[in-house]
TrEMBL record:
<comment type="similarity">
    <text>Belongs to the auxin efflux carrier (TC 2.A.69) family.</text>
</comment>
<dbReference type="GO" id="GO:0055085">
    <property type="term" value="P:transmembrane transport"/>
</dbReference>
<feature type="transmembrane region" description="Helical">
    <location>
        <begin position="222"/>
        <end position="248"/>
    </location>
</feature>
<dbReference type="InterPro" id="IPR004776">
    <property type="entry name" value="Mem_transp_PIN-like"/>
</dbReference>
<dbReference type="InterPro" id="IPR038770">
    <property type="entry name" value="Na+/solute_symporter_sf"/>
</dbReference>
<keyword id="KW-0472">Membrane</keyword>
<keyword id="KW-0813">Transport</keyword>
<feature type="transmembrane region" description="Helical">
    <location>
        <begin position="6"/>
        <end position="22"/>
    </location>
</feature>
<protein>
    <submittedName>
        <fullName>AEC family transporter</fullName>
    </submittedName>
</protein>
<dbReference type="GO" id="GO:0005886">
    <property type="term" value="C:plasma membrane"/>
</dbReference>
<keyword id="KW-1133">Transmembrane helix</keyword>
<feature type="transmembrane region" description="Helical">
    <location>
        <begin position="123"/>
        <end position="143"/>
    </location>
</feature>
<feature type="transmembrane region" description="Helical">
    <location>
        <begin position="254"/>
        <end position="273"/>
    </location>
</feature>
<dbReference type="Pfam" id="PF03547">
    <property type="entry name" value="Mem_trans"/>
</dbReference>
<feature type="transmembrane region" description="Helical">
    <location>
        <begin position="285"/>
        <end position="304"/>
    </location>
</feature>
<feature type="transmembrane region" description="Helical">
    <location>
        <begin position="188"/>
        <end position="210"/>
    </location>
</feature>
<feature type="transmembrane region" description="Helical">
    <location>
        <begin position="164"/>
        <end position="182"/>
    </location>
</feature>
Amino acid sequence: MFGIIQGFTVILGVIGVGYLAGRFGVVKGEQRLVLNRVAFSVATPALLFTVLHRSDPSIIVSPVILVTTVSAIVAAGVFVAASRLWFKRDLGATTLGATCAGYVNSNNLGLPVAVYILGDAAYVAPLILVQLILFAPTILAILETTRGNQRGAFLALGRAASNPIILASVAGLAFALIGIPVPELALAPIEMIGGAAIPMVLLSFGISLHGQRALQRGSGRAAVFTATGIKLLLMPLAAWGLSIAFGLSPHETFVATIISALPTAQNVYNYAATYQRGEIMVRDTVLVTTFASLPIIAAIAWFLQS
């Protein structure tokens, strides 16, 4: 339990430093996007390569990844059903709401949680790959059709294939499968760059919190609360139930449930902003789930490890 408290303290501490940097004008406005871009295109790919090239390739088809993937699909389906019953939205907004309910922040917060709480980023790295290869193209294809573009699926697949995170993850898995060691002369700078990924994304998120006002009247709070409840309560409960049903070990059940309780991924907001669909709903869901997930993850960890 001390390790969990220590992990959250580290994560919140760096987010807090980022907030102060924004609050006192050290980083202004959209300048924080530089951190996001460097982390997305350079540091995170380096981190994932170093993690995956040393990992057991069988983890990508492990029961943990299967359980978390099925749980995400269940969560998205429940949101779509709830939306049709209580707060009907257009196709784009409904798609993004379902994504908020099931698309976990396996990168910005998932990697820190994996490193400091699960003790191994190798559990989260394959999930990033699954989300980017399977979920992201599907989401982008649907959003492309809302623009009247029937070639959305092909465009989404093209974007996924050129994603630096996917390219680095595939390269890391290839090295692990082939079993060829990476020369230390080449690996050392990659590891150094990868070490900057987690601090950069947490700082950037903290900076982004300055000046935000969430859950204002008329901003679609019903959809936000529904997506938040599904994401933080239903999805981990589904993962726990599936883990028991599939006969996973106690540790695998712990990992699958914790991963499923991660908050909504921040890149869902990038999709919303790009396609101009449900931006406020997605922004508020990301914000609420990020903070509400911390005590929930701690409670899950205490319950499953006690």
